[in-house]
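Example record for the data management plan.
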Amino acid sequence: MADLVVEAPPLPVIDFIQMSIGVIGDSSVGKTSLVLTQGQFCQQSKSTLETVDYQSTTIDYQGSKYKIQFADTNGSERYDSVIWQPFRKVNAVMICYDTTKMDSFKRLDHWLKECRKHVQPDVKILVVGLKAENEKNREVSKSEGKRWASLEDYAWVEGSSRDGTFSLPSIMALLKDKKVAAESTRPKNYRQYLDLNNVAGNNEAKEALEKFLLQFEAPNLFKDNEGDLSGSMLMYGPTGCGKTFLVKEAARTCGMEYIEVQPSLVSDNQGESERKVKDLFKQARLKAPCIFFMDELDAFCPNRDEIGKRSLDGKTVNQILLCIDECKSQPIFVVAATNRPQAIDPAFARRMSTQIYVRLIDRTGRMKVLSTQLKNFSHSQLKDLVDISAGLSGADIDTALKSARTTLRQRLIKATHVVQCDNHFYPCDVSDPGAIPRTDHHLGSLPPLPFELVSHSLRYCHKSVSQQDIKKYDEYYDSKSM
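Corresponding structural encoding:
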């Protein structure tokens, strides 16, 4: 007799709408109690990654199931060491302040600036006043909180983690408010929002970006006889000179849609790379106007004469060129960056309306980078550092400053004594004048970097760009200029 086979009933398929919410603000304003209010999250759902605490749960809201995840800075903000990477993919951000402390309210500008710097430009923002039940000690009025949020057209709410104001359905309702949704919609004058003050040098590339954004203020003036509204720019030059940073900063500040293509596009499977290329350009047409950025171009658009036009890579290049031609009637700004301009396909280079040599930053550029990051230094000190950092790229300088901060942290932790200077505590020897025993209180925040440490770090920083590299790029530039 054959064995009787009994099939188990199929499991129900439940589709969840994912919702990720970042919670930021000063330490001790009540962010954690906000997230954990009324036991909405079980302790088992908690996880920590890169100093960020995650809590997740599912709720029914307006007939749909939502899987909600909260990301909390876990106290790292008190050491000014927030890891922003996990917040770059959130759907919404709750910027919190303590209604009983005016200082935390004044710090909203700081948190909004950091938020705009690190999260996506279309993220929804909710301004939250906490500890509102403590009327006796209130320092920030409701009208002040509401006025601050209204200046940016953000939704605002005030309440307590104890009164149900911050139940998940209430938060969802606030985030779906039409005022919040309107925040993600920019007017067509993208140029007025473009802010590239954080980018040192690269003036030619900045001008090319501005020219492309100009057309949205008067599109009929820019439409030629063939209906060409697109623009294109190929940036080449040494590594670490800000090519990628420039494009990302432009997209972030002006609020335009942004699509980035990475070398992972290339696949060994027959037809897979071409399909990915088609999908990405289709996204660009749907999201236009947009910036379409191809980083490390030489990895997926190599010279077909060298690899063979019928190879897998050759077919990918063919598809890219075809898609670029098809996008000419769309407001899509195609930007490509490469450290190896000699290796890319000449047909791609010909399709770029602008080719820009992004050089190693000069004295002015180094001064801008250093003065932005070292605001406590005098002009004469900065001039000395500019001289010391000659030949370093922007990325090299950034690496040197990070190394200096790491060294200062290690010295503070290992120090037995510290000395006070300008309301900050620095490690010192026990015999130094003014030395006092170091306690945990002195580890509350990292003091500004001292000049000697920065100059040492810059002087011994490895130069990622050699004179031979610069000569090679100069020769390529000269060959294209003839």
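Summary line stored alongside the record: The CA atoms of residues 81 and 445 lie 9 Å apart.
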